[in-house]
Amino acid sequence: MTTAQTLTPRQIAELYVDCWERKDFTDLAPYLAADCEFTGVFGTASGPDEFLAGLKGMAAGTDSLVVRKRLADDADVITWFDLGMGGAPATAVANWTHVENGLITRVQVTFDPREMLAAR
């Protein structure tokens, strides 16, 4: 798969968050590898369809998303952000995005979900 525009891993991670905030992942889809994997607190996903379905579900419940810091190297990006969901207080989240050949191959996310679960 080739993309219309070559982006750096940092730019792809920025696009990921931008799409989440807009709740529209059309722009992100071309940057997902066919065998991309997601691992997070609320589940896992394999392949672009599951990956995007999971993100759409998270985005639908998102009240706020504020990026605090982003660190990147040649293939990996860590985005630290505060995520507000379901009326719960914002929760600190670490998102690790791994990019190979211009495509996201892995995303791992970690955070403490207790306040989000309590707000349900």
From TrEMBL:
Residues 14-107 form the SnoaL-like domain. Gene3D superfamilies: 3.10.450.50. SUPFAM superfamilies: NTF2-like (SSF54427). This is SnoaL-like domain-containing protein. It comes from Gordonia phthalatica. The lineage of its organism: Bacteria, Bacillati, Actinomycetota, Actinomycetes, Mycobacteriales.
